[in-house]
Amino acid sequence: TCALPISLAVPLLSLQAWWGVQQYEEAREGAEINALGIADAAALGVRQFLGQAEELMSASSERLANSTTDAETCRQGVDAVADFIPLFDNVMVVGRDGSVFCSHIELSGPMSVTSWPWFDQVWERPGFWVGGPQRVHRRDISGDWHLPLILTLYSASGEFNGALVAQVDLIDLGDYIGVA
User: Fold this and answer.
1) Helices and strands in the chain: count of H runs, count of E runs
2) Which of 3, 44, 57, 114 could form a disulfide with 151 if both were Cys (CB 3.0 to 4.6 A apart)?
3) What is the chain's Cα-based Rg?
4) H or E element at residue 148
5) CA dist list (Å): 150 to 34, 113, 129
6) Which pTM value belongs to this model?
7) Are 164 and 91 a contacting pair, CB within 8 Å?
């Protein structure tokens, strides 16, 4: 008499376990689909932001490439770029030697970016590109993780003349694209 309830309990427990596994797999698949949707939206937001940044920086590059002898013209140019895209914590023009010629943020004195990871690549990478994330210390710019957007600058004769660099705070970028 006891064998009948036990013989029914084993298949019922197996069925319940199978059903639980099925629900788990369906929930996991739904979560993966949602995560892919969020990743696609974030990627689209980043592509749009980078496209706008490249357009603005490219439009400003000729004026800034030829302003490395006039600090006031340079400062006005980087201020205009920084004001147009609020996500830029700083915009600066860096000379061939790595010295910051002008900066949107007031610097306390001369500054060089030769130790920054992207600077070694600036000679070999023409055009617009994104450097790797870097920690920018308070005494240099603002003190948080930034993503440098770099546009190489050339003189009217086509000679390498430095770079236009926009620093984007990664937390602000995450907020902007809705993933932070």
Assistant:
1) 3, 6
2) 57
3) 26
4) strand 145-154
5) 33, 13, 5
6) 0.74
7) yes
